[in-house]
Specification:
This protein is α+β, with helices and mostly antiparallel strands. It folds into 2 domains: 63 residues, Arc Repressor Mutant, subunit A (Orthogonal Bundle); 177 residues, Trna Endonuclease, Chain: A, domain 1, CATH 3.40.1350. 42% of the residues lie in helices and 21% in strands. It is built from 10 helices and 9 strands. The strands form 2 sheets. Strands 3-4-5-6-7-9-8 form a 7-stranded mixed β-sheet, sandwiched between helices. β4 and β5 form a beta hairpin. α1 crosses α2.
Length: 257
């Protein structure tokens, strides 16, 4: 397949990666780096709602990424209710973390309606992540303290982009996208929901990261299995909160028999 007729999502990902790793780049420079024609690059830049969400153009016609595709991901806070290093997150008390999260949600335009139920779900997510990192710290040591964590990722500045990820955990080369439900049974629609953000996150984080979606049922116990995604052949992990470390082990391989 010629470079100028690659699938649209692959083109979006490649163009976004060039922008988000630069200090400002013009369309013709993107075209040269990707061996594309200038017209193709302009079509990608102006037709893609997600790129318009993630990038901006200055008065000199240079494109910039709001979030850099390097660790740590500066700019991630522009799309998150709360983000930081895992070690920083673990040092925050509940009240301090919740205040930071609600302030961040307000800044990114995340609705805080149904406050009682929403705050309960926020705190439930926090408890699950505290349990996860207690487990991972025992298994991995300090390595996971330098990972990044983001709560309430929101992309909704265009009419067509609607992404609401509960929690992202970003390791050296993987992004775990965790969808939390306060349930104990698997709903196929919620499996689809957990999976559907992956193509957008692939563009957001670039080609150096593997996106791993998972569904976490916080009212279940001792649950870890792979579930088919709709009618596709693909599967994703579904687990209870107490078994969430197994999702990370599945892709990072730190446990031995």
């Amino acid at each position: 397949m010629r470079p100028d007729i690659r699938p649209a999502d692959e083109l979006d990902r490649a163009v976004c990666a060039v922008i988000c790793r630069s200090g400002g780049v013009k369309a013709r420079e993107i075209a040269r780096e990707l061996s594309l024609d200038h017209k193709t690059v302009n079509q990608v830049l102006y037709r893609s709602p997600l790129l318009r969400e993630l990038c901006w153009q200055d008065d000199d016609h240079r494109w910039h990424g709001i979030m850099r595709q390097t660790r740590p991901h500066s700019g991630l806070q522009e799309f998150s209710g709360y983000c930081g290093l895992v070690g920083e997150f673990l040092l925050l008390g509940e009240r301090e973390w919740l205040a930071a999260l609600t302030d961040g949600c307000t800044n990114i335009g995340r609705s805080l309606n149904d406050t009682r139920g929403l705050i309960h779900s926020f705190l439930d997510c926090r408890e699950q992540m505290l349990t996860l990192f207690r487990d991972l710290r025992d298994m991995l040591g300090k390595r996971c303290m330098d990972w990044e964590i983001a709560f309430e990722l929101r992309l909704k500045r265009s009419r067509y982009v609607r992404i609401y990820a509960d929690v992202l955990v970003i390791s050296e080369d993987k992004v775990f996208s965790l969808e939390f439900k306060m349930k104990n049974t698997v709903d196929p629609e919620e499996v689809l929901q957990a999976a559907k953000y992956s193509p957008y996150l692939e563009i957001m984080f670039g080609p150096d990261y593997e996106i791993i979606p998972a569904l976490v049922l916080t009212r279940a116990a001792e649950l870890f299995r792979f579930v088919r995604i709709g009618e596709a052949d693909a599967v994703l992990p579904v687990c209870s909160g107490d078994m969430l470390f197994n999702v990370f082990n599945e892709y990072l391989g730190f446990l031995t028999d």
